[in-house]
Design goal:
Blueprint: H1 3-45, H2 61-64, E1 74-76, H3 89-97, H4 99-122, H5 129-144, E2 151-161, E3 164-166, E4 183-192, E5 195-204, H6 210-226, H7 233-245, E6 248-251, E7 254-257, E8 259-260, E9 266-269, E10 279-280, E11 297-305, E12 312-313, E13 319-322, H8 334-346, E14 352-353, H9 354-359, H10 366-374, E15 378-381, E16 384-385, E17 392-401, E18 406-408
Antiparallel strand pairs: 1-18, 2-4, 3-16, 4-5, 6-7, 8-11, 9-10, 9-11, 11-17, 12-16, 13-14, 13-15, 17-18
Helix pairs in contact: 4-5, 6-7, 8-10
Subcellular location: Cytoplasm
Enzyme class: hydrolase
Region (Disordered): 12-59
Length: 415
């Protein structure tokens, strides 16, 4: 081949190679653009679906139940004379009018279930009472999306141990540590728009206390089964007492009767009032023939003890609540006045504890708080204890006496 022809072929080859490189670049760029557009398109299509709960619990239940309709509790038909309510169209129509209130209670109940599920998993001997209280309260605040008096904690977290049956929560500086041989009552509440869910359970780590905890469970469910519209309070007490009469426990070679704590009761619940107008006895001889009524919300709770079955106030007070019946009371101490303003704004008539005042930034308030108690504006609720060396247990559920059926709103897979 002549030199001129060789040069011509080489130039043509170079030109073809350049063209191929340019086309490949265009193709690569086009491919990248197409991939980017596809990714963007796919990203747009992705929707924010319901979330799942974390550990520790931090996801509000409103982000899990995005319809904002919360799970219905366990339903039970009424019996005997009230069985007709189950299919009554008139009662169903009445029930629809209360659906918003019921949904608020169910939201609070779902918060309670999710928080306690985590608490039961992580509470162990060696933890301080303050650690336990804070893990429960932090979870409650997050899941209910705490917002002043619209939603939040229903009352201080009760963490009563052994012979202490109720009304103990740690104050600042509390050093009490949970032990393997302790019997711990965990009693906490959640509210939405003042509709409070009150539910409690007992934890034991030494299996020798299993029978005590079982007795509280069986007695509480006997009370729940008996409760209903037009049922007398004394009949509920008799049903509970009958169960406790059938239980005894052997501890360290000695046998004890398991007794109901006769001066502790269940109660009705009203908006922003944890203890409504009716007390529900857990003994047979109460003599109270008052009847439960349609649309009432109540806490069926029972306590039992290896001691005398009677509690008294003893120990440093942590629980308080503003009185709803005191009316206007002139206060002389400026500190008492300012503290009352904080209580009214933050808690209203909901119970509170000293740790909650600390959290709000209140300082040097004990004298003012004492003045409010002495004036009858605030009521103090000291710990309630049986005999030293005895053991107590508790189980509690919140019930709705709906027009058509009975709903155990706080029922869960755990209890």
């Amino acid at each position: 081949m002549a030199a001129a022809e060789v040069l011509k072929v080489e130039k043509l080859t170079e030109k073809l190679q350049e063209t191929h490189i340019e086309e490949e670049g265009v193709s690569t760029e086009a491919g990248a653009d197409a991939a980017a557009k596809k990714k963007k398109k796919n990203k747009k299509k992705k929707k924010n679906g319901p979330k799942t709960q974390t550990e520790p619990p931090t996801v509000p239940v409103s982000k899990i139940y995005t319809s904002l309709v919360y799970p219905i509790g366990e339903l039970h038909d009424y019996v005997d004379d009230n069985l007709w309510r189950t299919t009554s169209e008139e009662k169903r129509a009445e029930e629809k009018l209360k659906e918003e209130d019921f949904n608020d209670v169910r939201r609070a109940a779902e918060v309670h279930r999710q928080v306690r599920a985590y608490a039961q998993k992580v509470i162990k001997p060696g933890m301080t009472m303050t650690e336990i209280a804070e893990l429960i309260e932090n979870g409650t605040r997050a899941l209910v999306e705490e917002k002043g008096l619209e939603a939040g904690i229903g009352f201080p977290t009760g963490l009563s141990i052994n012979h202490c049956a109720a009304h103990y929560t740690p104050n600042a500086g509390d050093k009490v540590v949970l032990q393997y041989d302790d019997v711990l009552k965990v009693d906490f509440g959640v509210h939405v728009n003042g509709r409070i869910v009150d539910s409690a359970f007992t934890m034991n780590f030494n299996p020798k206390f299993d029978t005590l905890v079982e007795a509280a469970r069986e007695a509480t469910y006997a009370g729940i089964k008996e409760a209903g519209i037009d049922v007398r309070l004394c009949d509920i007490g008799a049903a509970v007492h009958e169960v406790y009469d059938s239980y005894e426990i052997e501890l360290d070679g000695k046998t004890y009767d398991i007794k109901p704590i006769r001066n502790l009761n269940g109660h009705t619940i009203e908006p922003y009032r944890i203890h409504g107008g009716k007390s529900i006895p857990i003994v047979r001889d109460s003599g109270d023939e008052t009847k439960l009524e349609e649309n009432e919300q109540l806490a069926i709770e029972t306590f039992c003890s290896t001691g005398r079955g009677y509690v008294v106030e003893d120990g440093e007070c942590s629980h308080y609540a503003r009185s709803t019946e005191s009316g206007f009371v002139p206060l002389r101490l400026a500190r008492a006045k300012s503290l009352l303003a904080t209580i009214n704004k933050s808690f209203g008539s909901l119970p509170f504890c000293r740790r909650y005042l600390d959290r709000l930034g209140e300082e040097k308030y004990l004298m003012g708080l004492r003045n409010l108690v002495e004036a009858g504006v605030v009521t103090a609720y000291p710990p309630l204890v049986d005999t030293v060396g005895s053991y107590t247990a508790q189980l509690e559920h919140t019930i709705l006496l709906r027009p058509t059926c009975k709903e155990i709103v706080s029922k869960g897979d755990d209890y």
